[in-house]
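>> received
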Amino acid sequence: MSKGRWILLILLLSVLLVSSCQVWPSAAQTLGQPEESGRPEAILQVSVAELKVQGDYPPEAVREAFTAVLPAVATCLQGEYQRLGKVPAQLTLRFNLSGSGKVVWTKLVDPPLKSLEACLGKALGSLQLPAAGTTLSRATVVLECRSDHLLQP
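>> returned
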């Protein structure tokens, strides 16, 4: 190849590289942002549909403590809604309570969403019950979720 063709080839590759650098950042910015659709953002309502406890803690005490952290759980679900554009109608969550009343393990059983499970684990970390012995108690909670832009916050 002659020297002129090499210069032309390098110039062409430089132009392609520069133009791709201008396109890719703007495309990357729009990927993580929700589209403006003109409709209002949906409000989520979360409620405890079912709660079962195996162990030393009475279900009423666990329900009361779980209700106290329900706003943090709703915040996790709102984040998931913003990420995916939807949330499941029902969630099944299991967690273990130590004898001192702290949550020591959490698992989102259905649906198995790892991003949501991590947030729910942090939210349940603030759940506190009075001490009730030395054995672990296991709780299973079924949450119902409703999303609608007409719901009142």
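>> The helical segments are 3-31, 59-84, 114-124.
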